[in-house]
Design brief:
The chain has 9 helices and 18 strands. The protein is α+β, with helices and mostly antiparallel strands. The chain folds into 2 domains: 5-189 and 316-390, Zn peptidases (Aminopeptidase); 191-302, Alpha-Beta Plaits (2-Layer Sandwich), CATH 3.30.70.360. α8 (324-333) packs across α9. The radius of gyration is 23 Å and the shape is globular. The chain binds zinc ion. Zinc ion (ZN) is lined by residues 86, 116-117, 150, 179.
């Protein structure tokens, strides 16, 4: 069953024209186009699922006005596969292009989200719609998950979907998480622990530093200790092709005036974690490093919401590259399995499905840029791969 390039491109363009900037990426430019967030695109997705013959469509409000959408489609067997697509996009404030015009030009669909990651959403909706009109069903039941809040805010949509699926007792054979991977089946992602370290000193006039305790100066050995930790991690043998964990100090703030000994200084520290590392152990180690190095009292707090099983961050996601679904997608796309350094909803889905792969057209290096586009040829290629996998009949 062939769905034409124009149909695929129009479906993706229609989604791009519905702004869905993550509220944590909001700004004046995004707000010109109406309310930020995923509410409008969720409504469109739900309507398209209904039109394409879904047997059930659920709107699951994760945060006010920001629902996940679950569209359940009957298959010809009682087994189930899942495609997860995040519905939010990153900021449009620095875009040099009209962000939401969804124009089809130079062989591409242009606009924020075209690549990351409305391409897969649009292609899948166009396929389901045409199969429904032709009286076809996919081989297995299909659950299309449109999840909010992937780009910022701790993967809240994926965090919400998981217990929903578990409570309904869903047995999921294969799960595809849509992201731009250049059609490579990604079978491993690093996890993340993110903390804020705050040094608490004592303020005094800067003419009398002896009367205070300088929190900014106290942070210097803390930062040096994290630099040393990064060197230690870099020298460890790697357990998988994901390599080693890394640690970076990415933000600093502190001080109230040029003539005041600062009483407070904070840094943000991000720790990418690899298979075999437990987020709680990693958090404890970050806290030990900070406290051992800091000459004044210091507090370490996690900046990520706890995972549903109560962990202080996201463990890495990894499954061996010889699994059937990884190999199937690599053959179908003519690519090789890969691992990726970025985070994605897959970090919330370990163990939820028998097999879990991150997959989609385009390169992550082209996402989040001042212009964004997806090639229509890639939409056609994706439609072929999804049709082969989902096997309508
Ligand atoms: Zn994405």
């Amino acid at each position: 069953m062939y769905v034409g390039a124009r149909t695929l491109a129009e479906e993706v363009a229609g989604l791009v024209r519905i702004p869905s900037v993550n509220p944590l990426h909001a700004g004046p430019r995004a707000e010109e186009y109406g309310p930020v967030g995923e509410g409008a695109i969720a409504a469109r997705l739900a309507a398209r699922c209904e039109a394409a013959g879904a047997r059930e469509v659920v709107l699951d409000e994760v945060l006010p006005g920001r629902p996940n959408v679950y569209g359940l489609f009957r298959g010809r067997s009682d087994r189930l596969v899942v495609v997860d697509v995040h519905t939010d996009t990153v900021t449009v404030e620095s875009m040099t292009d009209p962000p939401f015009d969804g124009r089809i030009e130079q062989g591409s669909v242009w606009g924020r989200g075209a690549l990351d990651t409305k391409a897969t959403l649009g292609v899948l909706l166009a396929l389901l719609d045409s199969w429904h009109r032709a009286g076809l069903r996919p081989e297995h039941g299909l659950l299309l998950v449109g999840s909010v809040g992937e780009e910022a805010g701790g993967l809240v949509g994926a965090t919400r979907f998981r217990p929903w699926a578990e409570q309904r007792g869903l047995r999921i054979d294969r799960m595809l998480v849509a992201e731009p991977t250049e059609f490579r089946p990604v079978h491993g992602l690093k996890g993340l622990v993110l903390v804020e370290v705050t040094a608490h000193g004592t303020a005094s006039h800067s003419a009398r530093p002896d009367l205070g305790a300088n929190a900014v100066e106290a942070m210097a050995p803390v930062i040096a200790a994290f630099v040393a930790e990064q060197e230690r991690l870099g020298a460890l043998p790697a357990a998988t092709e994901l390599g080693n964990g890394t640690v970076s100090v990415t933000q600093i703030s502190g001080g109230t005036g040029s003539n005041v000994i600062p009483e407070r200084c904070s840094v943000t520290v991000g720790r990418r974690i690899v298979p075999g590392e437990d987020p709680d152990d990693v958090l404890a180690r970050l806290a030990d490093i900070a406290r051992a190095a800091c000459p004044v009292p210091c507090k370490v707090t996690s900046l990520l919401p706890r995972t549903p099983d109560g962990r202080a961050g996201s463990p890495a996601f990894y499954q061996p590259p010889d699994s059937d679904f990884v190999q199937y997608l690599a053959r179908a796309a003519g690519t090789a399995p890969a691992v990726a350094p970025f985070g994605a909803n897959a970090l919330r889905y370990s163990g939820l499905a028998d097999e879990l792969v991150v997959f989609g057209p385009g390169s992550i290096e082209d996402a989040h840029q001042d212009t964004e586009r997806v090639a229509v040829a890639d939409l056609v290629r994706l439609a072929g791969i999804l049709t082969g996998w989902l096997a309508p009949g």
